[in-house]
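Many introductory courses stop at the sequence. We go one step further.
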Amino acid sequence: MAQVKEITDFQASELDVYARLTEAQLLNRAQPQNAMFIAESPKVIERALDAGCVPVSMLLERKHIEGQARHVIARCGDIPVYTSTPEVLTQLTGFKLTRGVLCAMYRPRQPAVEEICQRARRIAVLENIMNPTNLGAVFRSAAALGIDGVLLTPACTDPLYRRSVRVSMGTVFQIPWAYIGEELAQWPHPGMERLQALGFRTAAMALRDDSVSIDDPRLMAEEKLAIVLGTEGDGLAADTIANCDYTVRIPMSHGVDSLNVAAASAVAFWQLGLR
């Protein structure tokens, strides 16, 4: 049974995870076994629990103990549940808790690239996407639109950053993901060759004169296809495009020449995913 604790000391070390530790400190590369993340809202916490994530503590408005958080509190077992009024929680964390419930959890084990690709037919490869909001939105589209896994290049933001998790609505726990290489120099080579060895043909989403339309029947005919999406500002690197099997364009009108990467991913996954 949870241990409900009223917040009386803002400086209590148990509250550091919510109030004072940065995302990088939560990641804790020096001690990965102790690395944590923050899940926000009962729905997101539920999906994290379903994926096997282990809760450490919770922070929530008092009214949610017997309200919208009741079920997840029951699932979290004997952990501390810190509580107070919205005003006190805002003062502690520095921002208003939009859904009133936070949960600190240990980071789950991440599968290997080969493990994700073994049975996958459609994967997304994200190159240098650094905005947590965009990343979370891409994961949500991937979960909804038939993508089996997500691979990230080393410069991408962390899918378990609080904002990424929140925007994804917890789908970062439903879609398997991994970094394809640990160093910047490992993409696009040998990362691209690694995908090819796993049986994937690659489709670069890019604005090029030699691109094929996203509804080209050859794309849907591919048994295993990796949809490669680039960073928010510059798109995919020229070397990445040159080494992909296809360069793919989304047809547009009214003089619009590009979409935000989150919007482009939804269109690409709808057309090319296997729902």
